[in-house]
Amino acid sequence: MKPPLISILMAVKDYERYLPDCLESILAQTCTDWELLAVNDHSTDTTPQILRAFAKRDPRIRPLDNEGSGLIPALRTAFRHSRGSFLTRMDADDLMPPQKLEKLSQKLLQAGPRHIAVGLIRYFCNQGETLGPGYLQYTNWMNEVIRQNKIYQQIYRECTIPSSAWMCRREDFIACGAFEPEVYPEDYDLCFRFYAAGLQPAPVPELVHLWRDHGRRISRTRPEYADHTFLDLKLPRFLETDYDPQRPLVLYGAGKKGKRIAAMLHQRNIAFHWLCNSPGKWGKSMHGAIWQPPEFLDQLDRPQVILSVAQRGARQSLLKMFSSKNLREGKEVFAFA
Question: pTM to 2 decimals?
């Protein structure tokens, strides 16, 4: 079945070094029924000239100027001018494998409305540079989550729908609010809105996006992507989507992130029980709660647990312990680290 027109939404700012390779990878797509809305976000380098030159080569490339300022307004501009029934996003410093649009659109056609096609990603870096082990670990985790379709089950750990590795129908995107909310990190916010709207992931167990790591990547340099911004997004989304005020709420973990979550709950006047593995803290109070030993969990009926333990081995052990008590991640337990 032939897919409808696919609109590729892309913001670009001062990426003259990477933009030509990005555009060439789009032109090399095996699926040819697409349009690229490439929005220049007030670049001061040769980005506008590069876009115009490529547009002369291929009219499917449509350069635009940002009607506002910043990434989200640029994506908003791209969406406003798009015409496709299917939508996806692209970053101007990344690359598309040749079959990206074909694989995602075919999966979306098979899955039907109210689905999001999501594929695998891979990091790469510029010649002569070395990709850090953290990125490799993150890639392996992300791809395993997608393969096993645990996208929503593990959504509170990290953004589980990569920013440029998804495709959905226009009407579903509009129903989720499109790019109207000015909330960063914008890809994580959109992931939560897909979840809240009930759009079902349709995994594509094949590589669909190549993420370039470099020193100027905005996730490295912009304050909107600092670690605390992800945590500050998780808790409000949990309270809106999964929190049941009729059940006891448990916070497990007394580290830096646990204390930040506790402070946020206290500020919202939300009662919670605070558990930790540190005997020296038991019986002491902070942010309106008294630290309790892990055994306190057995006294609670149908608890909801926010797990804030960053160390991977300890987190996995705790998840196994919760599972033995019939408390499942994504149902009764929500891992925030």
Answer: 0.94
